[in-house]
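=== Structure Prediction Worksheet ===
Name of assembly: unnamed complex
Input type: mixed (protein and possibly other molecules)
Chain count: two
Listed entries:
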Amino acid sequence: MRHHLILRVITKLLVGPIIIFALYVQFHGEYSPGGGFQAGVIFAVAFILFGIVFGLEKVKEVFPAWLVHKFTAIGVLLYSGTGVVSMMLGANYLNYSALNPENPQAGQVAGIIAIELGVGITVAAVMIAIYYAFAGRPPVIDDEDW
Amino acid sequence: MSSSPEQTALTIIDQLPVLTVVVPMLAAPLCVLFGNRHIAWIITFLASLLSFLFAFHMLFQVLDGDVLSYHLGGWAPPLGIEYRIDAANAFVLLLISGISTVVLPYARKSIEHEIKKVSHTLFYCCYLLCFTGLLGMVATGDAFNIFVFLEISSLSTYVLIAMGAERDRRALTSAYDYLILGTIGATFFVIGIGFLYMATGTLNLADLNVRMAGMEDNRTIQAAFAFIIVGMGLKAAIYPLHLWLPSAYTYAPSVVTIFLAATATKAAIYVLLRFMFSVFQPDFIFELNTLTWIIMPLAIVAMFAASLIAVFQTNLKRLLAYSSVAQVGYMILGMGLASTTGLTATIVHLFNHGITKAVLFMVVGAFVMRTGSSFAKHLTGLGKQMPLTCGAFVIGGLSLIGVPGTAGFISKWVLIDAAFQQDLWWLALLIVASSLLAVIYVWKMVEVLYMQPAPEGVIVKDVPISMLVPMWLMAIACIYFGLDTDLTLTSARVAAEGLLAGGSN
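=== Predicted Assembly ===
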């Protein structure tokens, strides 16, 4: 891809806005269409685009595969951990009102943001992991051997 | 939600229904986070042990016919997701978590031998997810939640089976076959739930039962019934839908085979029981017809055809897999009788067959570890060289046949009793006749192990103590539950009565 100057420049320009848009979808999810799943996919797109244009090795320098795997776990932990916190506060699993007993409404907002963040992290990490797995596969038959 | 009625703080005892499922679910990402196979094993074992203790405690809470209802997120059913524990699912939860807790000490050495070390952490993570899925399917009282957990357990099962590829590449095709068939099953199941939701507007199992009263002629309900039975029947490996099972069990790593054979089909059978008897009313004409003209004949065919196929197998793992299909036949036969005794037989056989198959597959895992093969021709004369392992095989085999004094006898006895209660003496005869087929394939293996001479110059030792102890624990359980039937029969009877009473209690 070294000679595709336009592609490389445009990609460099796009990666930042894509990530910012992902964060917008993530944290605006409770008021507008969006949420953790969509945000996670958009976030992963930034890395996948970078990987397609600059190569798998380059994107793995930014976000190594082992770290991707840890993040898949962190997201799930954040989600179910929120439920465990509400349990420790003496309420049912995933009852966010318990997070802020004086103001249950605020507790619910905090709970939703926490679990959506968990969803977002896991989805982004899984999408990137799937891309790594497919892109990292050696071709079964070389193009010349067809 | 701010007006949530549960203002008083809940104690850990109140949280048990959900904790049983949440603990392994939390443990799975922890394994990946630590990334060390020894720590992963410890986490997995502790999570499994905790679930077992929780399930044990819950069983004694519900044995007098009580029902534990837990509202996820504080949302009251039927709108919110409810975890509803009665004797039926507490008993199955106990089986699943108990088997897992016994299998894990065995797993450590066995997977060291069968799976390369870098994959161990991920193996335990997948194992925990599968475990979570099975527990969740059984614990929940919400139809859609069952589907979600079914998918969690299925997806991780495909990965676990494919991990057998290091020993035999055919694991990949069998995992793929199971993926295709399992996905069709899950899709059918979710289509059925969609129809139910369309007709009744609810997903809560108890509420479905109430709202479905008098809707017997509704075509949507009838279609939903068909879709759910076929979808879950695929997962439970009911006879013509069992094609994925033999290859999956044969090529999966030994530990996975033990765990799946003892728990996965059992969870699916539990879901079938729940839908047939406490969601759909068993007095619906279309359901009665299905039970009498489809389920019962298929059960009888399974008992004979699968046992007959098992007799001619040369691979011990495949032989036991076909025997599992036959044993599922006994379970759905009890279901087809649709009486309290029949259901008791199903539920008690679920448990007894679970522990029996656990012993037998543990023995096969030990053979694979020491001889590298599960083919009968490579196992000749092992009776002298691996006396403890082969001893456990004999006990498991006797229980599989249903010899008095073993767990297998109890469940067949109750099943025959149920047949006699409805004056179906010919059915009782068929049950005994099919047990004779089990005698043939078990004897065939005993002959290979004890009567045939060992190959010259090959010295084989018994497996390490960490594998022998779980194996014998299960073998002793096979005998114990054949003599002291208090826990199993009481739980099964209370469970059967609870299921037939429907959602009304």
